[in-house]
Structures are given as C-alpha cells and as structure tokens.
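Friendly challenge for the regulars: who can give me the structure tokens for this chain first? No prize, just bragging rights.
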Amino acid sequence: MAESNGLDWWQRSLPALAAGLIALGLTGCNTLGLSRSPESDEDMGNQYVDSGFRGNTLVSRMKPVRLRLQNGWQAAPTGTLHPNADLEAYNPDQELFLVVLGESRAAVGQGNLEEQASNYLQILKGGFSQVTANQERTGVDRVNGFPAVQYAVRGEVSQRPVAYLHTTVEMGEEYYQVVVWAPDDSRMANADAMRSVVQEFSSTQQ
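First reply, four minutes later:
Bragging rights claimed.
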C-alpha cells in the first residue's frame, strides 16, 4: 500500500480511534501531520532517532527506554499519536501505530503486574462502543528479559473496528504500556508485525 493511502486511512479513522485512545490517555490530535517526517529535534519532542550500524532506534528523552525501528517503521512527529508519549511510531504501509507510555509503580498504587495489566486493559475497553472479541491473553510473558503481560483485544470505536495488542511491561519501578493498533480487517495480515515490534522495546540501561 502506498504511504499516502495508509496516512489517509489514519486521518479518516481518527474520530473512530479517538475514544479508545483517550480511554488509555492517548489523546489524539485533530490534524496529525503524519504525511511528513520529523525535520528537526524540535519536531521529535520527547524522543529522538539514534542511527547506528543495526539501523535506527527511537530513544525516549523522558524515560530510559528505546524501540528499534524495523523496516517500514518511522518516528511519528511529536504529539501526533499522543501529546506526552514516551515513544510514538507508525508504519504507514501496514497501517500500524504504536505508543509507549510509562508511569511509576508508586503512581498507580498497590498491585502487581497482572493486576495493573488488567486495569489498563479495562480502561482501554471502556472506550469501545462495542467489544467485538473478548480479550485474549497471549503467550508473551517477557519483553527483552523484562516481565510482561500481553493481551489482544478488538473493539468498535465510533463504528470503526480496531485491533489492539496491549502489552504491560514492568521495568524496575516503572510500568510501561506498549500499545500497537491497526484496522481490524488487517489484523491477520499484521499479526506477526504487531507482535514483533513489541519485542523491539527495551531499556537503554541494558
């Protein structure tokens, strides 16, 4: 699919996705500006791209985390997927979108990783107008050596079917939500890509 078509889908579907994103705290913007690549460090906001012999890596300026950008993935200009995301990226050809949000364990109160993952998932589902498939726990329990809980869930948001892969990762005293989403009708074709990009998330302190 051409890049412009993928971006057009995202722009058309923004109202449909907005409720689910807001439910996660992932507030969308009315004008995404995803037809361009970040042109400067200012455009990059809370993140920057580190280019190396293994390719490009998206690095957070706010948290000690990074995401290796697989082929087709690129950084999203600041605030286009979330105004305060620690990391945000998208793959226009495959209509895939990703955000990472971190918060301290102290901020979320008592509870273990399992409980926190369930809480995050219920918040996400609360933004659906309809749950089209019950959440399914995947077999993922580690992301780059860190404990993780991962769910796949599908729902309609403003009559638009969306497929999410929601992973909660525990890194020391922080919980990170790694959220990947795509149009529901492309979930099967994108399943491997959605799973594999999550595994590119890691700590800069490793």
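The chain has one domain: 3-203. Helices lie at 3-23, 41-44, 105-108, 113-125, 187-198. Your move, everyone else.
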